[in-house]
Amino acid sequence: MRKPYVGRGLRPAAQQQQPLQHFDVLLEKQLQNMRNYRASVSNPILNIAGLTTEILSQLNVPIESLPQKCQQLLRQAAETQQELDIEKLDPIAISLHQTKELTENLEDEYEILKLKQKNIELQAKIDRNNKFLEGLRKELQSSQEFLAGQNPSPENIQDYIRQMKQKVASYEENCEKAKSKFTKLSVPDAILPASLSTLVNTLVALREEAASLKLRADDVALAREARDTFIRLRR
Q1: What is the SS3 assignment for 8?
Q2: For residue 145, which of 136, 133, 153, 157 has the smallest C-alpha distance?
Q3: 86: exposed, middle or buried (C-beta count within 10 Å: 0-12, 13-18, 19+)?
Q4: Whole-number mean pLDDT of the chain?
Q5: Which ranges form a coiled coil (predicted)?
Q6: Contact 153, 206 (CB under 8 A)
Q7: pTM
Q8: Residues 6 or more apart from 83 whose CB is under 8 A from it?
Q9: What distance in Å separates the CA atoms of residue 153 and residue 65, rounded to the nearest whole number?
Q10: Residue pair 97/76 in contact by the 8 Å Cβ criterion
Q11: Letter string b/e over residues 181-200, b meaning 16 or more CB atoms within 10 A of that residue's CB
């Protein structure tokens, strides 16, 4: 049998329907994309988590009807997707974000550990300083107790020094007068009266005692200064 004649430029009916079907598919996809876009604009979470939106839409489950915890998880996933600027959630992207969060947490913990170590070192220094100050306090207290049992004591040493200075000045004056008289008489030192020699020796002893008392007075002043410093440090 002879096949029906097909004119030039004419196609079979099946071939003519294929472009129309393809156009219908494209049109349906475009309409579906527009519907998805409108739904995503109305809800920011759906706008970010497009994959979740599509699944919920297929299940006909509105996101508002989900439990609060599920909504919170979806919101976190949406925020993560927005931070990473990805169009589609995938295990690799989630793993990278989790690794990033873990790294940041480890860095924060490391900084906290460094601060704790610094605090331990500072506390050790404070303890050493407190121990040193405690030693100074005990030494100062011991010095005060020792000086309190001496005569003169720290309470009356200034009056005692003043009296000794007056005695020394009086002895010096008497000695100078006696020496001046005997100098005018041109008496050799070998035959000086014993009383004058005793007076001279007493003058020398008093001068030595005055010097010793001066040193002790300086020690008392230093002890008082150390006590005042210790009190200021404790405050």
Answers
A1: coil
A2: 153
A3: middle
A4: 72
A5: 63-123, 161-216
A6: no
A7: 0.33
A8: 97
A9: 91
A10: no
A11: ebeeeeeeeeeeeeebeeee
89: left (phi over 0), alpha (psi -120 to 50) or beta: beta
Task: Compute the distance between CA of residue 231 and CA of residue 215 in angstroms, rounded to an integer.
Answer: 24
* HSE toward the beta carbon, residue 167, CA cutoff 13 A: 16
Q: How far is CA 30 from CA 35, 52, 59, 80, 152, in A?
A: 9, 20, 21, 28, 111
Q: Are 36 and 53 in contact (CB under 8 A)?
A: yes
SS3 (DSSP) at 192:
coil
Kindly state the average pLDDT of the residues 23-33: 56
Classify residue 66 by its DSSP letter: S
Q: Note the pLDDT tens digit of each residue in 154-164.
A: 667 778 778 88
The residue with tokens 């527009």 is 34
